[in-house]
Amino acid sequence: MKSLVAANWKMHKTLKETEDYLRRLLELVPPDPPVELAVFPPFTALARAGELLLGSPIALGAQNGHPEREGAFTGEVSMYQLADLGVRYVICGHSERRKIFGETDEFVAKKVRAAWNYGLTPILCVGETLVERRAGRAWEVVEKQLSLALGDGLFGPLVIAYEPVWAIGTGVPAHPQDAQEMAQRIRAWLCGRFGKLGEGVRIQYGGSVKPENAHEFLKLPEIQGALVGGASLDPQSFWAIALAAA
Ligand code: PGA
Fold first, then answer.
1. Rounded to the nearest whole angstrom, what is the distance from the C-alpha of residue 72 to the centroid of ligand 1?
2. Distance (Å, rounded) from C-alpha 6 to C-alpha 123?
3. Which residue of the set 96, 128, 132, 163 is catalytic?
4. Which helix (H) or strand (E) holds 116?
5. What phi and psi, each to the nearest 5 degrees, are found at residue 136?
6. Strands 89-92 and 121-126, bridge-based pairing
7. pLDDT digits (tens, 9 = 90+) for 115-126
8. Is the Cβ–Cβ distance between 201 and 158 less than 8 Å?
9. Could you state, in order of their start, the residue ranges of all structural domains in the chain?
10. For 145, how many CA atoms within 13 A lie in the half-sphere containing its CB?
11. Of 56, 62, 161, 163, which sits 20 to 30 A from 189 (CA to CA)?
12. pLDDT tens-place string over residues 194-238
């Protein structure tokens, strides 16, 4: 199973900055890279990014998507519209969406199902807060997020990003041992629920991944990639992280 290293740009980059980034990244990445790469630009740059990445080994991802196909949802972009642009991956349930935009587990579940409906691969983000970890409730929280998002079944390809909330954007990553332990529990849960299908799910680690620490996570047997925020904003740094997964 090839690792998936994903660049979540969040609310960063203009159209021009997107073009410059992708041109530089395409110079770095060989035609058949040892890991799978995906870039998640803001919606304003998605179509242009799709054009630039066409025929390249780098997949296009979206940071969010609405589960309804179309309708009166001012300001939203649907999974159906994303699929139309050639998007392959869509992030569902990122902790920033859960916390800042009040997304519930139920809504995340709808997004995951809609992604499959339109042929996209959801990257389902799960993770506990620091208070929850200190209270010894990390697995309880993650297990609940998993079962509410995937309760109905596994109906398509899936990536799970384990992102402890306290590690995101803080410069303080999880301890690799803790990430490994959580990934093992996630895998056991997936296989317990979905049998063989659970084995095909890639589990990423996310939260303050940088070129300097990427190898610590990407060498772990249960981790098949990374979801990278801040350190993915520079193509050189993103590619260095991807190489650590190779
Ligand atoms: P970070 O963000 O790498 O900046 O910590 C990760 C994420 O939010 O996916």
1. 31
2. 10
3. 163
4. helix 105-117
5. 75, 20
6. parallel
7. 999 999 999 999
8. yes
9. 4-245
10. 26
11. 62
12. 999 999 999 999 999 999 999 999 999 999 999 999 999 999 999
Confirm or reject: Cβ of 126 under 6 Å from ligand 1: no
Tokens of 84: 């139309």
- CA 87, CA 81: separation in Å to the nearest integer? 9
What pLDDT is attached to residue 104? 98
Which tokens in the block code for residue 93?
A: 């349930």
Pairing of strands 225-228, 4-8: parallel
Q: What is the CATH number of domain 4-245?
A: 3.20.20.70
C-beta of residue 72 within 8 angstroms of C-beta of residue 103: no
* pTM over the 0.90 mark: yes
Determine whether the shortest distance from the Cβ of 168 to ligand 1 is under 6 A: yes
The mean predicted confidence, pLDDT, of the chain is: 97
Length of the chain measured in residues = 246
Query: pLDDT per residue over 64-106, tens digit each?
Result: 999 999 999 999 999 999 999 999 999 999 999 999 999 999 9
Is 7 touching ligand 1 by the criterion CB < 6 Å?
no
Q: What angle do CA 185, 191, 195 make, to 5 degrees?
A: 175
Residue 246 has pLDDT above 90, yes or no: no
Q: Which atom of ligand 1 is nearest to the CA of 10?
A: 8
Q: Strands 89-92, 225-228: parallel, antiparallel or unpaired by DSSP?
A: unpaired
d(CA 103, CA 123): 15
